[in-house]
Amino acid sequence: MSGKNQASGNATLELSIDLISAGGDGLGFYQGKAVFVPLTAPGERIVAQVRQDKPDFMRAELLSLVQPSPDRVEAPCKLYGQCGGCNLMHLSYDAQCSVKERILADAFRRSGGLSGIQAAMVRGPKDAYRNRAQFHFGPDKKIGYAKRLSNDIIALDSCPILAGPINEWLTQSVSGDAAWQKLKPYMAGKDRFIVFGQDGYSAHVEGPDTDISISLLGKSIRFHIRGFFQSNLTMLEKLIPDVLDGLSGQTAADLYCGVGVFGSFLKDRFERLVCVEQDPRAVGYACANVGKPADFAANTMEEWVSSAQAKQRFDHVLVDPPRSGLAPRVKAWLASAQPASIGYVSCDPVSLARDSGELSRAGYDLERVRIYDFYPNTSHLESYARFVLR
Ligand SMILES: C[S@@+](CC[C@H](N)C(=O)[O-])C[C@H]1O[C@@H](n2cnc3c(N)ncnc32)[C@H](O)[C@@H]1O
Fold it and tell me: Measured from the CA of 321, which atom of ligand 1 is nearest?
């Protein structure tokens, strides 16, 4: 195989990167075939080594930069590129935001059939933002993250995106020995554990700690350390007012409610509130966090839409589904229940775009869509969309 001209096995290719794909890899084309190359930037000319050659696309690793992008910066982390966490840290923050805006606009056009959608970007602090982290013990019992493209563990003494209390805990635990002795009784059958930290408080570590209580816009919210909870409290405190903006009425629903974060605030705006969540443990927390006068259903959304509770009239419905987005039955229910407005918190631009297209065809106008940058330096894209009945 003649290196730069033919793609095969470990061939090297020279190509240009056109854009950053939704997964965070740079995307270029070699002899008409898509090539995904992590850690590259739009407009760059690069040399890359093929690591996977599939019928429709290739995956390759960056070997060298022929023409670097002006948006490329020195990543402020010595483990960047080896660690499996961040994948956009080699771009300036302005460039990261532009990438996310373009990914969302492309998703709306391609998966939703909605052109010209320009999401406003609500920026976050770029560093020291992450309140929740998952760590592993490596074979030498040192604490670390999973490596990129591998199941190996990369030892850590600090991480620039972690909130202060988690980094302080890491610094104290850096040798691993004391932390291992403390956590060993809780690690049976497990290869990872969660640490949660909010500024002003010491970190909570899964095992000794299970139940966490935080303050969110003046409300006390409790959750289980292993259960779902947003990992960036600063951005969550920016998102909640947008979710509530202009809302009031008789009845609202918080669907896929988790521990009832949004319900805790929606209940102040509506006379009645229904909260639905499939995880019974989370529903227990939601009952305590939201309190009366709300109704709670520990059920899947797919089943709940056929329940008596779902037959009432809703003024506003908030949905916050997992990555896969709304199931067809849930969209069919929304189309027939016709709440005056729908709020949609999304962690996946493609499923949000697909569902937005369907809601638009079911009679809803997209009133606003904003990207909330919960995860700077990574390609994770959180957004909020509001729809109003035409
Ligand atoms: C992205 S989280 C949002 C949780 C909550 N709104 C919050 O902000 O903390 C999605 C939630 O949906 C729940 N879930 C996933 N699939 C579901 C389904 N089919 N029916 C009901 N709940 C589901 C998960 O257990 C999880 O709590």
Answer: 10
Contact residues of ligand 1, CB 6 A cut-off: 228-230, 256-259, 261-262, 277-279, 282, 300-302, 320, 322, 347
Residue 312 lies in a domain: yes
244 and 111 belong to one structural domain: yes
Query: Which range of residues forms the domain containing residue 205?
Result: 132-220
Ligand 1 centroid to residue 300 C-alpha, Å: 9
Quickly state the pLDDT bin for 9 (edges 50, 70, 90): low
| 106 and 253 belong to one structural domain | yes
**Banded model confidence at residue 174, pLDDT cuts 50, 70, 90:** confident
Give the number of domains in the chain.
3
Query: What dihedral angle (degrees, nearest 10) is formed by the CA atoms of 141, 144, 146, 148?
Result: -130
- Give the model confidence (pLDDT) of 341-379 as tens digits: 999 999 999 999 999 999 999 999 999 999 999 999 999
> Could you identify the atom of ligand 1 that is nearest to the CA of residue 223?
9
For the chain, how many helices (H) and strands (E)? 9, 20
Q: Round to whole Å and give the CA distance between 71 and 341.
A: 39
Burial class (CB in 10 A: 0-12, 13-18, 19+), 47: middle
Predicted pLDDT of residue 1:
34
pLDDT of residue 360: 98
Mean pLDDT of the chain: 95
8 Å CB contact between 370 and 122: yes
Same domain, 247 and 350: yes
